[in-house]
Each structure stands twice: as structure tokens, then as C-alpha cells.
Amino acid sequence: MQIYLPIAEVSVNAFLLLGLGGMVGVLSGMFGVGGGFLLTPLLFFIGIPPAVAVATGANQIVAASFSGVLAHLKRRTVDLRMGGVLLVGGLAGALLGVQVFNLLRARGQVDLLVQLSYVLFLGVIGALMFVESLNAIRKTRAGRAAPTRRKHGWVHAMPFKMQFRASRLYISVIPPLMVGFLVGILAAVMGVGGGFVMVPAMIYILHMPTKVVIGTSLFQIIFVTAFTTILHATTNYTVDIVLALLLIVGGVLGAQIGTQIGAKMKAEQLRVLLALLVLLVCGKLALDLLLEPSELYSLGTGKAH
């Protein structure tokens, strides 16, 4: 069933959009990521203009993350205090990110920025997560306990420390603020929740328990992506409500399923699956940059070919 998207100015199959939203919702519930790192490129691939995909994708992440957070709150796996600190940094980062996005969009360079940002961040983070997770699984199967994460002295030596009881941590608020700020920029520029950056950072830098990380990540993502959506809607006018509604319906349903799946899997298994997904999307985008450069230049100059 074809449906016309007024802002994107294209016709797309409605069931395809529902399926994409559902798939992203499952990822949100399983891994604590908003799923935008997968949704936004997929929207590119089915013909949605990049500016609309980024802004509307952020809107869908709000619904999928909210659905996932409700399930995690019931299990008390959300550190609300840590989420609040991350949120402060995230809002500031989103504000800066939207300004950068608007500037590059006015110069016709936003498409190239989004593609390169995805390849860079997904490639580095996916590779690091994949190697670490495989090592942890291999050592566990060999009968040795999974290695404890090394404490980073610079994190624990910083001032302005705060007690985070749900995460069993007493650390400076500066590292969480920095992580949140980076995630806010990514949310605005790439149309992602930023969970693919925040989840590894919370595990390996802040040393939070994996089960608490997922719910806390989703909690922060809700507000940062909502704020980003509002900024894009009021400055760029690139949020397509029809597209957003179809993605949201699928995302809310998928998040509940993903949360149930994630609760039955080991932390190492969750991380290696997420790493594989990140690397897969990175590879597809990198191929597009290498094999189809003419499309990027035509979009950047605003000419249709």
C-alpha cells in the first residue's frame, strides 16, 4: 500500500515503513540504543531525502526508547540520577549539533557530512566492541571469568564527584556530561539516539553494570531526541509527521519484544550482536561512498540527475 509523504515528497509502501520501525524498536529494547544508526541509512536507501530522514528518524527514536524504558523501569534497571547528568550534556550537545546541521545544509554539504560521520563512528566503535566481546566470550567458554574492566584513573581523579547508587558508583559528573554532550551532537547531525556511542562509553569509561546501562541509555535518549526533533521541526521544517507516525507504531511494538529478548541473553552476547549490526551498516555506507560518489555530489549541489 503506497502512501504519500508530504514533507519528503515521495511515495513509500506503508507496510515497509511499519516493518522498519518494528525492527528498530526490537534493537532499542535489546541493546539500549535508539536504533537511528540503522533507521536513518535505511530511510536513505528507500528514497527519503537525508534532511527529512535525520529529523524524522530522531522523532521515531523517542517513541521506541520510551516504550523500552517503561519495561526497564519495571525491572528497576534505570539509573535516573546518571540519566539526568547525561541529559544535561546531551541537551547542550543537541543545541550545538542542530546549528552545525543548519549551517552545512545551507551550503549543500549535509548529506556528505552524515555519510562520513556514520562510517567513522560506526567503524571504530563497532570494531572495538566486536573484538572485546569475542575475547570475553572466548575466556568465559574456556572456564575463566570474564575480565573485569580496567579502571581509568583520569575518570576517578576528576572533581565534582557524585554518588550513583543504582550503578554503585561514586565518580565525577564531568565524564558523564562529556559523553552526553557528544551524544547530543550525534543526535542532531546524524539523526540517531547515540546509544551506539553512549552504551560502550557507559560500560568501558564510566564502568556501569551492563543491565543498568541499557535502561539508563534509553532514558537519556528519549529527551535528547525529543529536543532534537523540536529544533529540526522549528528551524528546518524537515519532520514528516506521516512518516513519523508509521515508524512510531512499528517502533513501540518492536521495543517491547526486544526488551524481552534482551533480558534472556548474556551481556557479552548482546554486545557482540550489536557490534555486528554496527559493522554491517558501516560497510554498506562505506560502499555507497566508494561506488556511488556521483549521487553525493548531485545531492550536495541541489541538482537532480
TrEMBL record:
<feature type="transmembrane region" description="Helical">
    <location>
        <begin position="51"/>
        <end position="73"/>
    </location>
</feature>
<feature type="transmembrane region" description="Helical">
    <location>
        <begin position="85"/>
        <end position="106"/>
    </location>
</feature>
<dbReference type="InterPro" id="IPR051598">
    <property type="entry name" value="TSUP/Inactive_protease-like"/>
</dbReference>
<dbReference type="GO" id="GO:0005886">
    <property type="term" value="C:plasma membrane"/>
</dbReference>
<dbReference type="InterPro" id="IPR002781">
    <property type="entry name" value="TM_pro_TauE-like"/>
</dbReference>
<keyword id="KW-1003">Cell membrane</keyword>
<keyword id="KW-1133">Transmembrane helix</keyword>
<feature type="transmembrane region" description="Helical">
    <location>
        <begin position="12"/>
        <end position="39"/>
    </location>
</feature>
<feature type="transmembrane region" description="Helical">
    <location>
        <begin position="177"/>
        <end position="205"/>
    </location>
</feature>
<feature type="transmembrane region" description="Helical">
    <location>
        <begin position="237"/>
        <end position="258"/>
    </location>
</feature>
<dbReference type="Pfam" id="PF01925">
    <property type="entry name" value="TauE"/>
</dbReference>
<feature type="transmembrane region" description="Helical">
    <location>
        <begin position="212"/>
        <end position="231"/>
    </location>
</feature>
<feature type="transmembrane region" description="Helical">
    <location>
        <begin position="112"/>
        <end position="131"/>
    </location>
</feature>
<protein>
    <recommendedName>
        <fullName>Probable membrane transporter protein</fullName>
    </recommendedName>
</protein>
<comment type="similarity">
    <text>Belongs to the 4-toluene sulfonate uptake permease (TSUP) (TC 2.A.102) family.</text>
</comment>
<keyword id="KW-0472">Membrane</keyword>
<keyword id="KW-0812">Transmembrane</keyword>
